[in-house]
Inverse folding.
């Protein structure tokens, strides 16, 4: 009988995705596929289906140095020479650990490390290093620091603000070879693993032990846990499990001078001095490279339910959220918002049928997870009846099985990927007080319409302005899918969006980080005093400034 | 002909996305605390019955039927939320599992009581993979059968069924009454919408036991042992091209 799942799963997939799954690669930017690790992304690649409309032409990504002409290569950094490369080759040994674009033509091999998956940022790096151990990372950094060679730490390269790709000729240090899961304690739920472990692999490992990684996001099949921690990724279940600042118990990191910061503590409580590890969490590789983490993983819930609603207005979404909190309380594990436009674009880009008949201005996805399915079902049914009868939601569906759960989730998780379908996306990841969270989307859309930038044909750069995000965390993703990246669009967006957010005392980067995109705008969310303190820390740990330059601060 | 009276038998099984585990005693698969849902082939049956009605084929009634533990009620409610008019639940405890012949004998009597003239079954349930019930029922009733349907059209009392066979399709035509079993590409089942889930709660669900039916439903087979397939051996990672060539040579592939 164990063969049942093996038999039925492929059949089911066949039916659900029918003939469309092979075409997914057209939808996904070609470059990303190349460095996606072996695992699949069930919410994206398997289910998002094929493309009905014409897919965007494969464009050459513009160099970041051309997009931002004001950025100049800092002459304090040395130019990389064949001697440097020889040192790395001797240090790392095996041939695949060093991609040498200096003495050989390795353009195609290096390209995936030079540009990001949104095709927005592209560097000029000639050398990629893939260390296999913390000691190797330490030796690399020490050498780079002594020789004034700038570096970019890189994980799965799924970042959204250009933080993980070089700008000029910085050396890429990619952690994809550090994939060891070091230990897991079934009693405490504490996992210790190398930074290069892919999130989904870590989560699958934990699933076998009935635990769950306290972070989940759309890119889980490619992103690495070290990168997740370095960028303090938020994701889909933050509402339930909290931020990485709380869940990460310890880290192992390497400072630019080669010092190994061994702080892989496996304690929940440890009030002994400054909590230095927090500087690395969300530090975006500017003071050191995280090589391993220890993280507290909660028990995996055995009972999972997902419902998907259509709602009339943003006010109704807020009402639904309030009701969900009061009636579902401890079993509520996600409350996601998608506007009608984002769902329509998902449908246009992938051809997938949406779960609800008819169109609704807003959609919400609710997930509950608990330990007793009867208890959860009863609560959820009461909640659903209540929101239907009091007309808070206009329509909705409740997943009846595991595959429907995945399909409903893909209506939310598939959005970021499908928006790139027309050529590119401008993404803003904003924290805004919940009552005015969606206003920004309408305001930006009005602004684009006034400027005549939005339209259905090629003459207009902007396809649409959409908003979706983590309603439970007051975090909205303002996305502007475009046919091409255009300075006029940029001018209409910035600094308008940032000023708008500042006016509401929001944050210009809720979970994506600063990277290169938001470096100039940090002042909209942090005071001069705070920025000064941050700069002192940067100078203290990275006095030569070799770590991920031109970004963050 | 007055109209179609469709009977759709459905089964509650371990969710197809869940990996079944064999219990410690190696007598069966672990079912406690495991997510269950409607057998996917049965979802197709319900969907097809509802679509027939939506295509304006004169459907008088769609009855969903399940024989299984008390929780089988849940899948009957799902079936009614998808569009079945009412449900019949024969409560069978986990300990007294039915075999295909037993189910077919039950269905034979239900068909008589409900005056059904079309029975749409899943071609098989994904837990025991027997693929027998539809065929045995056709034999007991002495009705024609069209198995593994990928397309169904009905005009008057003439039914045309397309079935996928090796290397092509086969088209059958038969007169009602008829047995149809469904295959994967017949349709794509809908989601149960909230308004329909709520309506389904008010639809009639008759509760019965095996005692309400005549005949011997006892099992004829005895399960001796259930074991998991041997785990797949993991691969090895090589460091570089030379390593791979060496490994291939070692395995005699080069």
């Amino acid at each position: 009988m164990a063969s049942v799942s093996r038999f039925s799963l492929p059949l089911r997939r066949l039916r659900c995705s029918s003939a469309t799954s092979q075409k997914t690669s057209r939808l996904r930017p070609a470059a990303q596929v190349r460095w996606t690790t072996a695992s699949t992304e069930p919410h994206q690649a398997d289910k998002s289906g094929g493309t009905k409309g014409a897919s965007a032409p494969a464009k050459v990504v513009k160099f970041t140095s051309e997009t931002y002409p004001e950025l100049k290569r800092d002459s304090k950094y040395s130019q990389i020479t064949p001697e440097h490369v020889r040192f790395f080759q001797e240090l790392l040994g095996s041939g695949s650990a060093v991609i040498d674009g200096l003495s050989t033509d390795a353009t195609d091999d290096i390209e995936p490390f030079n540009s990001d998956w949104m095709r927005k940022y592209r560097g000029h790096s000639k050398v990629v290093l893939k260390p296999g151990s913390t000691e190797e990372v330490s030796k690399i950094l020490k050498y780079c620091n002594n020789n004034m060679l700038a570096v970019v730490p890189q994980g799965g390269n799924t970042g959204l603000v250009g933080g993980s790709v070089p700008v000029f000729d910085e050396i890429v240090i990619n952690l994809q070879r550090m994939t060891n899961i070091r230990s897991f304690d079934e009693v405490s739920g504490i996992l210790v693993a190398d930074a290069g472990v892919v999130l989904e692999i870590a989560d699958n490992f934990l699933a076998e032990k009935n635990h769950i990684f306290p972070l989940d996001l759309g890119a889980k099949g490619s992103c690495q846990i070290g990168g997740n921690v370095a960028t303090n990724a938020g994701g889909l279940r933050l509402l339930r499990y909290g931020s990485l600042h709380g869940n990460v118990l310890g880290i192992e990191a390497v400072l630019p001078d080669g010092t190994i910061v061994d702080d892989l503590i496996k304690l929940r409580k440890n009030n002994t001095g400054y909590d230095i590890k927090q500087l690395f969490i969300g530090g975006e590789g500017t003071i050191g490279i995280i090589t391993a983490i220890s993280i507290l993983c909660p028990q995996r819930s055995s009972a999972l339910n997902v419902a998907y609603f259509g709602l009339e207005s943003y006010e109704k979404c807020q009402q639904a959220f309030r009701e969900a909190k009061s009636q579902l309380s401890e079993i509520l594990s996600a409350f996601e918002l998608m506007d009608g436009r984002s769902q329509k674009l998902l449908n246009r880009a992938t051809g997938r049928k949406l779960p609800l008949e008819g169109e609704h201005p807003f959609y919400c996805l609710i997930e509950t997870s608990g330990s007793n399915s009867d208890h959860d079902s009863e609560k959820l049914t009461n909640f659903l009846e209540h929101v239907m009868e009091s007309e808070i939601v206009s329509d909705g569906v409740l997943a009846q099985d595991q595959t429907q759960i995945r399909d409903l989730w893909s209506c939310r998780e598939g959005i970021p990927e499908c928006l790139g379908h027309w050529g590119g996306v401008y993404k803003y990841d904003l924290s805004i007080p919940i009552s005015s969270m969606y206003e920004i989307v309408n305001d930006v859309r009005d602004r684009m319409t006034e400027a005549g930038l939005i339209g259905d044909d090629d003459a207009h750069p902007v396809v649409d302005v959409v908003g979706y995000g983590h309603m439970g965390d007051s975090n909205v993703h303002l996305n502007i899918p475009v046919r091409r990246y255009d300075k006029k669009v940029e001018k209409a967006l910035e600094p308008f969006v940032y000023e708008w957010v500042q006016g509401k005392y929001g944050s210009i980067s809720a979970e994506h980080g600063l990277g290169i995109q938001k470096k100039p705008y940090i002042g909209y969310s942090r005071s001069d005093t705070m920025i000064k303190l941050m700069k002192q820390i940067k100078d203290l740990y990275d006095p030569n400034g070799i770590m991920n330059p031109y970004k963050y601060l | 002909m007055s109209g179609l009276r469709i009977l759709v038998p459905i089964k509650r099984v371990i969710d197809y996305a869940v990996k079944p585990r064999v219990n410690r005693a190696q007598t069966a698969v672990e079912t406690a605390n495991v997510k269950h849902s409607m057998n996917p082939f049965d979802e197709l049956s319900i969907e097809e019955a509802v679509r027939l009605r939506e295509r304006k084929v004169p459907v008088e009634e769609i009855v969903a039927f399940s024989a299984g533990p008390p929780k089988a009620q849940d899948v009957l409610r799902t079936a009614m939320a998808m569009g079945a008019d009412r449900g019949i639940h024969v409560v069978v405890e986990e300990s007294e599992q039915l075999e295909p012949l037993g189910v077919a004998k039950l269905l034979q009597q239900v068909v008589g009581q409900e005056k059904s003239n079309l029975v749409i079954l899943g071609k098989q349930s994904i837990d025991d993979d027997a693929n027998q019930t539809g065929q045995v029922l056709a034999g007991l009733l002495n009705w024609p059968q069209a198995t593994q349907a990928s397309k169904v059209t009905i005009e008057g009392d003439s039914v045309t069924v397309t079935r996928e066979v090796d290397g092509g399709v086969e088209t059958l035509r038969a007169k009602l009454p008829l047995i149809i079993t469904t295959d994967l590409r017949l349709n794509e089942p809908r989601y149960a919408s909230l308004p329909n889930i709520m309506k389904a709660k008010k639809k009639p669900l008759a509760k019965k036991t095996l005692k309400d039916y005549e005949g011997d439903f006892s099992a004829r087979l005895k399960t001796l042992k259930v074991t998991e397939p041997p785990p797949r051996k993991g691969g090895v990672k090589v460091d570089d091209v030379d390593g791979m060539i060496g490994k291939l040579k070692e395995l005699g592939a080069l």
In short: Residues 1-57 of chain A have pLDDT under 50 and may be disordered.
